[in-house]
Write a structure and sequence with these properties.
By secondary structure, the chain is mainly α. It has one helix at 21-65, and strands at 5-6, 13-14. The model has no long low-confidence stretch (mean pLDDT 81). The structure holds zinc ion.
Length: 66
């Protein structure tokens, strides 16, 4: 007698203990999104730091001049 689980997400028949591809795909997508979020945060941070650095340099140059 065949016993199988049904994927709650897409309804595909699964062997007991088998994970459906759609769940793995969703995880992969989430991982990618996390990576993009993380990467974007780093990028905006370094941009901010570059901005601050530019400001400090400008301030320093200004002090030097006066
Ligand atoms: Zn599925």
């Amino acid at each position: 007698m065949a016993y199988f689980k049904v994927c709650p997400k897409c309804g595909a028949a699964l062997d007991p203990g088998e994970k459906c591809d759609c769940i793995e795909e969703a995880k992969e997508r989430q991982k990618k999104q996390e990576f993009l979020k993380w990467h974007y945060r780093i990028e905006s941070k370094s941009r901010q730091m570059a901005f601050v650095f530019d400001n400090e340099e400008a301030g320093y140059a200004g002090k030097k001049c006066s």
